[in-house]
Write a structure and sequence with these properties.
The chain has about 180 residues and is an alpha/beta fold. It contains five helices and ten strands, in the order E-E-H-H-E-H-E-H-E-E-E-E-E-E-H. Helix 3 links the parallel strand 3 and strand 4. The radius of gyration is 15 Å and the shape is globular. The chain starts with 6 loop residues before the first strand and ends in a 5-residue tail after the last helix.
């Protein structure tokens, strides 16, 4: 694949996943420290907007909301979020989330170019990915911090990132401190 067709990551690119806006079941399932879903959603929006500027790019690695959340609630939270939002589709991202929200792009899998490598984005954690044997990285969601990240594979889900979006630089600094598996 030619690098000319790939998006280049810079300091204005953020990565996050598994926000599960409006999904009351996520509070118990992922042991999220919130008294209710409204407090959860307000805090995630506030933390996102404290970091992300309106012209920044945010790669959401899936599961924006819960399956049973009314679309108008999902859309209200989505509109509050700063940034140019791009979706990597997760298992809870139904047709309305994929097609009716103002995403700059919607993909099942996407490869980006970073400083010295490529980064493969997918909602699901992969054991190997294109470029795996060349030193390329993989960012994912889905696991809710149940599978340890490594020097090459990072869980971008909010459960693993203190409920915050993170930049490539922030993520790779943390990855460098992890075991090489």
């Amino acid at each position: 694949m030619s690098n000319a067709n790939l998006t280049v990551i810079d300091h204005r690119h953020w990565f996050v996943g598994d926000t599960h806006f409006g999904h009351t079941g996520i509070l118990d399932m992922a042991a999220r420290p919130y008294p209710g879903i409204k407090a959860h959603d307000r805090d995630l929006v506030r933390k996102w907007n404290d970091l992300v500027q309106p012209r920044d790019t945010v790669w959401h690695l899936g599961d924006v909301a819960g399956d049973d959340v009314p679309f108008d609630e999902v859309a209200t939270n989505f509109k509050r979020l700063h940034g140019i939002k791009r979706l990597i589709v997760g298992n809870h991202d139904g047709e309305e989330v994929r097609t009716k929200l103002d995403w700059a792009s919607v993909d099942d899998i996407r490869t980006l170019v970073a400083r010295d490598c490529k980064v493969v984005l997918c909602h699901y954690p992969l054991m190997e990915w294109e470029g795996y044997f060349s030193g390329d990285l993989h960012f994912h969601g889905h696991t809710h911090d149940r599978i340890p990240s490594t020097r090459r594979r990072w869980d971008c889900g909010v459960d693993h990132q203190s409920f915050l979006p993170m930049t490539f630089s922030q993520i790779t600094k943390r990855m460098a401190m992890l075991q090489d598996v």
